[in-house]
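Justification of resources, computational component.

The compute hours requested in this renewal are based largely on the per-chain cost of generating structure records like the one below. Each record pairs the submitted sequence with a full structure-token output. That output is archived, and it is also reused by downstream analysis tasks.
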Amino acid sequence: MHKIPDWSSPTDERNPQNWSLAVKVYHAWIIFGFSFLALFNANLFINGYEEIQLEFNVGYEASLVPYVTFIAVRKHKLLLIAHSYTNPLTQGIVFGTLLAGPLSEAFGRRFAYLCVVPLSGLFIIGVAVATNYATLVICRFFAGLFTGPAISVAGGLIADVFKVQDRLLVITLIVVGPFLGPSMA
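The structure output for this chain reads:
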């Protein structure tokens, strides 16, 4: 179990709230970047459905499965219910987020950024070099699973680094990332 830090004085250099403004902005920028890229990646994928059809020799419906995973069978026909929150990457983000909160409290926030995010990058590379359709879908899920923690611990990191009176502006700017990602994709 990770020991809870005990600051020896209000000016303790180890206290993140006493860091310089440049270091605080650097950490806020990392949070913004991860949240932007995660949702940009989740929504950009839909633009390549025709390439998926050609590369993996699958039909239109199957080419959308890595983006849309709610499939209903009605009278022997596949019906796709299109919604970006149902793609494998976003489902992975949801499950990763559920695990991240308790893990970040137990092992610290650095765990989410230094251990989990590189794993997400490896699975994104796995999507890029996938040689079959199943690998593509599975790698999308695990890319999201390992992206979720970086997004979900953002609030805790902001609370750790910024003083109460400074948090409103920072949180407002950080929240723009998840909205900008899909709109730019």
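Confidence is low (pLDDT under 50) at residues 69-85. The chain has eight helices and two strands.
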